[in-house]
Fold this protein.
Amino acid sequence: MTPHVVPDPQAGAAVKAADRAHVFHSWSAQGLIDPLAVAGAEGSYFWDYDGNRYLDFTSGLVYTNIGYQHPKVVAAIQEQAAKLATFAPAFAVDVRSEAARLIAERTPGDLDKIFFTNGGAEAVENAVRMARLHTGRHKVLSAFRSYHGATSTAINLTGDPRRWASDTGSAGVVRFWAPFLYRSPFYAETEQQECERALAHLEDTIAFEGPATIAAIILETVPGTAGIMTPPPGYLAGVRAICDKYGIVFVLDEVMAGFGRTGKWFAAEHFDVVPDLMTFAKGVNSGYVPLGGVAISERIAATFETRPYPGGLTYSGHPLACAAAVATIRVMEDEKVVENAARIGEQVLGPGLRELAERHPSVGEVRGMGVFWALDLVRNKETREPLVPYNASGEANAPMAAFGAAAKKNGLWPFVNMNRTHAVPACNVTDDEVKEGLAALDAALTVADEHTV
């Protein structure tokens, strides 16, 4: 239970003033933002210095999978700091080895070697490097509706508009359309049609790009920021078969979808598919200390058995981050967090969101699984016109801005991206917390409804 917080607006003002003076924020025009000064957080909630408490339906940036300030993870970090706060990555360190073992036990198939990074983008960078070195090829295929990170290769692989300002157009990246029946680029009317046509389109793209030039195909198992579009049955297995046919490395990005988010340890388990490389971060330790990595198949690991891998990071497998990962995984096991995420999605969050869609004309589609859901907001349910234009800003984005403001006014911190709001609470969220969030969404959607036709 969140402790009582005594409001301290003066302290909050000082925090905000220091932030404005010295912190350069990501993805922002610095003079146009007004960051909330956060006083504390616990479980599924955080609060400001004015005493306002918010139910966090963003899980930070979809990473606090066990909520804020879990006492067992905090204790593990403290204990590790007292024992061995840091050590170079070239050495064998007990907590690093244990974190790798616990992760490898949960990854699908033979993804048993773990290369640690500091986050998801670096995981993608290294996965692509491994694929290119393993195959001797350079091109990498990625989907238009995707996000893979903000470092050099990762941002070029990204499909959403955050790529545009940094797109070199010469990074060996080729994009294709992945399946998304609600806004199908293939004029499909059923999931089966969408799957078949998406796979045919992918194979055509490979044929015209030259199969012998393509090192890897990278896909988010369930795309996250781009809209939580669960792939249709058979699609990922079809991609796996195409990769095998042409000797292409199959990379699944589970940075956001992994570690319980979809109601399985990894989303790949839902689709019975094993990639050659899998990237992870975020939920591996609930974001308490930065950590990411690549889970590597036996075949690709063998490439570097006697050949040095030309890559590394100073903080690879940092002891504090690994201690947080070990503690987080054990908490998730002991407290059945993955099972809770699955149950919440099936029995509480999913049904609750679908009920909202029935009553609100602004909700065009509900999609997701576990605690990984999106509401696609529209101006018209029949035409499926998005509530705001693609990549809208300023006045064009006013309807979504008004929706977000209404959610916050009702004590819910929403995840808003383009014409969507995502419902992505902690994996250990309670039934009552979800119902509280649904009530706040219900009220906020009445504001979105005002912009429908």
